[in-house]
Design brief:
368 residues, mainly beta, 5-stranded mixed beta sheet, 7% helix
Length: 368
Amino acid sequence: MHSHEVADGLLHRNKIKESVWIETMRRNSFKTTATLAFIVFCVGCTEVRDIYYSDDIKITDGVEVPHRTLNGKLLISELLGVSYMEVVGNYLLAFTPKLNNLFHIYDANGKYITEIGIKGNGPNDFVNCKPTGQSCVNKGVCNIWINDVSSAELKRIDLNESIRMGRCIIDKRLPVIPMSANSFYMNDSVAMQEVLTENNYKWVSSSNGRILTEDPCYKIKMSSPYSCYSNISRIDECENLIVSAMHYINQINFYNYKTGKRFSACVGSITASQNILDKETGLSKWVYYADLQVTDKNIYALYLNQNYKDAYEKKKKVELHVFGKDGTLHEILSFDQYIIGISVDMSHGILYGLSYDDCIYAYDIRNI
């Protein structure tokens, strides 16, 4: 999803190959880039190196934690091409990058309200975008931040005004470093973003697009970091914590951007570097984490744990790993559906699950 070869679309789920960069974090996989990078990658991966992020890693292989299955209620079934979901106050947004309107808005019970947002270069338009996972409700006003990668901006949508006007209203913008996969609003001038380099990623703090600090993400440099280190990240501003769920490596990474402390968590076995790509096809061998949500209390990581060629298409039992902020695994949940995307509404005790066939289910998580 980064830099040199980028794919537009529902990266994990639809497996549509296109030339747009941002939407590659989801439904397909990163086939085009992975194939091109395969030859270069193999040259530098002859030995096993499995400490990617930090020597401080919690491995829970064999650790006993509670397991249970969640049974959902079908909420929404009329949408096609849903890529992400986000909860903002009492609203559920379904991000649909292939439809004319990018955001379909529902209430917490799945009742349709309206749809907003178009692709374009207008003051309230988007080019190639995805939600950052950051939203807020202040005195009844609901806002959500969108990372518009091609325009190198974070854009904040005023949902209340957008619903009232029947069109998208962007009330704040913040410049970011171009082509940043994961970008987060810190204050009115500062953003934190994950930026692809030639052989790594780096966390960059910037002020109105000007770099303030840089910190390489990974201990091992890769000839094709995109093919190995793709992830979905979310921020916990109260804890100064950025959490990243890796797509092709079996681990969750934690980064305190104030202190610089890093640590990781792994459920099962750590992925050896030579096992990330298939030597014959040049594609990723395995898909591990598909989505991530960070709440005040827990971290919810959707664990596909599926062969690359089957991921997002062939139904199987998937897991939801529930971590604490210290990386401790608290519980493993399973779904009654083949869920490939999640969003959590703590105020109503609901986890929304997006199935591979674009249906949205509601799961009761009040006891988690």
